[in-house]
Amino acid sequence: MVSSILLPILQIVVIVGLSPLVKGFINKMEARIQCRRGPSLFQPYYNLVKLLQKDVVVSETASWIFRATPYVTFVSILLIALLVPVLSSQVPLNFIGDIILIIYLFALGRFFLALSSLDTGSAFGGMGGSREMAISSMAEPAMMLSIFTVSLTVGSTNLSNITGTLLNYKSLNPSLLLAFAAFVIVIIAETGRIPVDNPFTHLELTMIHEGMILEFSGRYLALIEWASSMKLLLLLTILVNTFFPWGITTGFSFPGLIISFALYLVKIGFFALAIVILESSLAKVRLFRIPNLLGTSFILSLLAIISFYVVS
Amino acid sequence: MEQHIVVNSQIIDVLAVLMLLSTIMLIGTSRVKTCIWACVFRSFLLTLTSGLIAYFSGIHHIYITTGVSLVLKVVIIPGFIFYIVDKVNIKKEVESYISYTLSLLISCGIILIAYYATLPVIQFENTFMRHCLPVSLAITLVGFFAMITRKKAITQILGLVTMEDGLFFAALSTSYGMPLIVELGVFFDILVSVIIMGVYLYRIKESFDTIDTGFLRELRE
Questions:
Q1: What is the C-alpha to C-alpha distance for residues B32 and B26, in angstroms, rounded to an integer?
Q2: No. of H helices and E strands in chain A?
Q3: DSSP conformation letters of A124-156
Q4: Is the pLDDT of residue A29 over 80?
Q5: Neighbours of B208 (CB within 10 A)
Q6: S-S: A149 plus which of A93, A179, A195, B167, CB 3.0-4.6 Å?
Q7: What is the pLDDT of residue A222?
Q8: pLDDT single digits (tens) B103-143
């Protein structure tokens, strides 16, 4: 009984608390690869504190959508943090929704961001919003298909069941391999990392995600930045706990949680490093080449489903 | 099935799917060098698979074909193709008659057809290689598709090598390989045809200043 209250709180604390650190870690490592010293690991926290203390400037033409968007985005991501297995494979609140709800909660936040980018009437906002929507309309089917492959293998769309079953999965399955490759491409597209979007740029013609949030300031900007770093961490968590759930505890015991927290940190760190290496070795692709990348992801997940039906 | 057969079958399955993936990469990439590396990777996986099949089945003559294919397809042919690429100085990207996404979708459709066509055959098979036939047919057909849709002669050579890989894998998975003498003959054939195509490619480059085979249709004095 205690666990069903404590575990969700613990998950929220881990996701909300660690997500700026993951972002800081990626920035720091990228700087090190480029032989720069780079900002401090905790720079994203300082940024958030600074932004939270600042005033909000809102365009005169903005409607209530603009004011509601930061909260909608943040809360939708918080809800996802309650549903994803982070430290224990059994999430007490897993009866609320499955992976499909999670995908659409991500979509809800993105939808409101795109609306608010149109709301202020800024040219860059509209461009960013339309680009983001175009990319997500291609990333979503690929993500759905790769997740469905995992669901078919396990026989459930519930993330707790998926993690719990794959934890004891003893065989080598080629369709999971393909689904994993597809999911990695989708994560890169969804979080706006380098082959798709450059998270550091504020150059007008190249930005996608930054273009959408150009009009936000103060605590609104802080909430959106925080939500986007939580989104990255959550997608990495889904990746890690779906495809590599080794060592995650199945119950709620103190030593088990400590071990799975340590393993979780190692695994997230590993994938953050993988992102760093990927971003440092690739150039951003042209906007009109992005459909090719996402098409590849779609084909991979389609092949995953085909090979599931053939092999089993 | 017994436990060790299940494990063997899973290893072979994963290797087969990786081979399929690198064949898709041949279609999916836009750079000539990446195409060649994808081919090398697939040929390497193929020799690995045939080595494992030889080990699992205990048929010794497969070891010989594995060795020959390792030397030929992973070392000599790619080395020769890289040499030609440097010699004719290909910098441009791969060009195709149909768009990138469409060719990916078509190759996915080809893979589906390959699975569908071989389904009646493989459902009665009970060896550890029962899922290899659809993959090998898919590799052959995708190689053929790459050959007919690409403009550059170099990617057509790669398509030919891909087709041969697929046929070798098909023979391996249905009947533990062809007789050794046939196998060696096929290897010799592929080597000679790649070399001839390489020389041919060099000549095309000399006389047309491009290796786009579309130009061969133009009548010239």
A1: 9
A2: 11, 0
A3: HHHHHHHHHHHHHHHHHHHHHHHHHHHHHHHT-
A4: yes
A5: 15
A6: A179
A7: 95
A8: 888 988 998 898 888 888 877 766 677 778 888 999 999 99
Please give the residue range of the domain that contains residue A299: 2-35+55-311
Pick B11's closest partner by Cβ from A172, A175, A181.
A172
Whole-prediction pTM = 0.86
Give yes or no for a contact between A117 and A128, defined as CB atoms under 8 angstroms apart: yes
A251 to chain B, any CB pair closer than 8 A? The answer is no
User: Is residue B188 within 8 angstroms of chain A, CB to CB?
Assistant: no
Tell me the domain boundaries of chain B.
3-209
Burial A282-305 (b: 16+ CB within 10 A, else e): eebeeeeebbbbbbbbbbbbbbbb
Residues 6 or more apart from B140 whose CB is under 8 A from it? B162, B163, B166, B167, B170
Q: Which pair of tokens denotes residue A131?
A: 């680009």
What's the pLDDT at A205?
Answer: 66
pLDDT of res. A47: 93
DSSP state at residue A61: T
How does residue A22 score in pLDDT terms, banded at 50, 70 and 90? very high
Mean pLDDT, chain A, whole residue set: 88
Confidence bin at A95 (pLDDT 50/70/90): confident
Number of domains chain A contains: 1
**pLDDT tens by residue, A61-73:** 889 999 999 999 9
Taking the Cβ of residue B11 and every Cβ of chain A, the question of whether any pair is shorter than 8 Å is answered with yes
Instruction: Give the integer Cα–Cα distance in Å for A159 and A88.
Output: 11
Determine the residue of chain B that is closest to A300 in CA distance: B21
Residue A77 lies in a domain: yes
Domain contains A266: yes
Residue B152 has pLDDT above 60, yes or no: yes
Q: Is B14 on the interface with A (CB under 8 A)?
A: yes
Q: Which token pair is A147?
A: 């997740």
Position A45 in a domain = no
Which among A83, A10, A79 has a CA at the least distance from the CA of A238? A83
Q: What are the backbone angles phi and psi of residue B179, rounded to the nearest 5°? A: -55, 150
ipTM: 0.75
Q: Is A249 helix (H, G, I), strand (E, B) or coil?
A: strand
Cα gap A162→A68, rounded to integer Å: 34
Q: How far apart are the first and last CA of chain B?
A: 67
Which residues, numbered 168 to 207 in chain A, qualify as contacts with chain B under a Cβ-Cβ cut-off of 8 Å? 171-175, 177-178, 181
Which residue type does B15 have? L
Distance between CA atoms of residues B72 and B191, nearest Å: 8
Query: Within a domain: residue A89?
Result: yes
Q: Which of B13, B24, B101 sits opposite A291 (nearest CB)?
A: B101
Would you call A307 and B11 a contact, using CB atoms and an 8 Å cutoff?
no
Interface test with B, best of A293, A307, A309, A312 (most B CBs within 10 A): A307
pLDDT tens for each residue of B45-68: 999 999 998 888 888 888 888 998
- Bridge partners of residue A88, in order along the sequence: A249
